[in-house]
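Hi R.,

Here are the chain sequences for the assembly we discussed:
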Amino acid sequence: MLFNSYEFILVFLPFTVVVFTLLSRLDSRRHSLGFLAFVSLFFYGWWNPSYLILISISLVVNYALGVFLQSEQTKKHWKTLLLILGVALNLGLLSYYKYGGFIVQIVNDIGNNNIQWTNIILPLAISFFTFQQITYLIDSAANRVKHSDFVEYIVFVAFFPQLIAGPIVHHKEMMPQFRTIELNVSKENLQVGLTLFIIGLLKKVILADSISDYVAPIYDDAADGTVTFFQAWIAGVGFTLQIYFDFAGYSDMALGAARMFGIVLPMNFNSPLKASNIIDFWSRWHITLTRFLTDYIFTPLSIKATRKTILRKEKQSSSTNSAGFITCLAIPTLVTMFLSGLWHGAGYQFLVWGLLHGLFLVTNHGWRMMLPYFISDKKKYERLFRPVGLITTLVSVFSAMIFFRADNLTIATGMIASMFGLNGITIPEGVFVHLGPFADLLLNIGVGTDYTAGSQLTYGTLYCIALLLLAIILPNSLDMMRNYNPALNYSLKRNERDELFFNNKLTSLLIWRPGRVWAVICGAGFAVGLMSLQKLSVFLYWQF
Amino acid sequence: MGSMQHDYVLKKLNKTFCEVFDNDDIVLTDNITAADIEEWDSLANVRLLVQIEMDFNINFSSTEIADLQNVGELVDLVISRI
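And here is the predicted structure of the full complex:
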C-alpha cells in the first residue's frame, strides 16, 4: 500500500487513526500497542502476503537473539558470538535477496562464466528492517536496551509509517514513546501530523512526479545513444530534484503519519541542497542512514587508526600527516561510502556513486585541513567562498546522481561526458530558430544544433530552475512546524539561516500555527494532492 | 564534590575542544551537541575522542561513542572512567 494511494489515504490511515483514538479511551497500553503491531503487519502484508512469513521469521529470530544478548546471565564471549551470528544472519538474508544476482554477475564478468540466476523479487523494506534490527542487536549486546516484550518489538521494527523507507530508528529513542502510547492521542498531534502528511503528499505528487516526466525520457534516450549537453544537465539536475522531493515527501509523510499516533520520529531530511559542502550535505540527506554508517562503520574504523597515529606522533616529532590522513580518514570514508552505495542498490553504478561521494568527502576533509596554511581570516574566507561551496556541492551531487539513476556504467559515463561538454554543445533546432541575433553568436562560438525536442528542453530547464530555487531558498517543513516539535533531533540552531528568513512580517506567516487559516490551507492542499493521485508512482526509496 | 569534579572535567574538555576544532571561542555547557558546533563532524568527533582518551588516559568503546548525545553525557562518561 503506497502512502500516495487512495486505499492508504482514504481507508487505511483514517481507519487506523480512529480506532487507535477510540482504543486510547480504554487507557490500556497493551491494546493500543497490539493494535499498532497488527495494522503494521497488515500494511506490510497488503503488498504481498507471502513476505509476511519472511518478516515474521526475521522478527522472531532477532527478538530471541535480543533476549539472550540482553540477559545478564549470558557470558561475555557468548554475547560476542551471538552478536556476530545475528548480524551475519541479517546480512545473509539481505544478501540472498538483494545481492544474489549481482554476485553472480560479478563472477560471470570476472571469469567470463555464464552462470544463470533467476532474479528473486526484493521483499519490500528488507534493507531498512535489516539495518534497524542490526542496531537493535548491537544495542542489546551493549546493555543499551531495557527488556521489551515482543509486541513492543514488532512496533519498534515494523511501525508502518517508518517500516518501508525509514527513518532507521534506535530502540532508546522510540521505547519511551511506546511506553506511554495510550496517552499520546491529542488534537495537536493530529493537526501537526496531518499538516506534515499533506506537505509531504504535495512534494511527492506535485513536485517529484511532475519533473520525472522530463527526466525519464532522457535516460531512455541515453540507453539508445548519446544525449546532448543540455539533456545531460537536465538529467543530472532533474533527477536530483526528483529524488530530493520524492524522499523529502516520503519523509514528511512518515513523520506526519507517525505523529497522528503521537509518535515523533527522528529527523531524516533537512534541506540537503542548502549544504555549502559535501560533509554538510551528508548531515542533511538521509540523516538516520548516515548516523548508522558513521556509528557502526566509519567511527570504529577511524578511531583505531587515529589512536595509532596520535601515539606515533607523540613518540616521534616527524610529521606523519599524509599517512595519518589516509589511514584515519580516506580509507574509512571510502569503505563507508562504498558500503553505502552497495546498500542503495546491487549494481556497479551504485558502487561508483558511493565511491564518488567518498572521494568528494575525502577531498572536502583534505581541503579543510590544508586551509589554515593558506588562509588566516577564517570568517572572511567563509563569507567569500560560501557561494563557491554551494555550487561545487550542487554540481558534485548532480553528476553523481546520474550514476544512481542510469541503468549501467556505460550509459552513466556517456552522460557525464556530455554533461561536461566532451560531446560538444548543441541546442535543439526548434529553440535555435527563435533566438534571432543570438543564433549567429552561438554558431560563432561553436554551439551547434540538434534535433531533440525543443519544448522538452525549455520546460525541463524551467522546471529544474523553479524546483531548485524552492529547495534552496524556502525553509523546509520542519522549519515551518518548528514550534511543535516536528522531529527528534531537529534543532533550531542548526538552521540559523532559515531563522533569519522568518525575521519579517511576510515570511513569518509561513510558520505553522493551529487555527482556521492553516486548516483552510491544508484542506486545499489535501484536495489538490488527492486529485493528483490518478497515476500511481512508487517512492524511489521503496526499492531499497 | 560530584559537581566540582563535573566542572573540572568540563573545563579540561573545553581546552581539548578548542584545540581540536582550532577555535578559541567555544564555551562548553552540558547541553551542547554536535549540531551546535559547525566543525564537529564525524571525523572531528573521532579526533576529539581520541584526544580526550589521551588527555585523561582512558579508552572508549565504539558503542559508548555512538551512544553519546551531548557534552554532559561525555563528561559523565569521562568521570565514570577516571
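DSSP finds 22 helices and two strands in chain A. The mean pLDDT of chain A is 85.

Let me know if anything looks off.

Best,
T.
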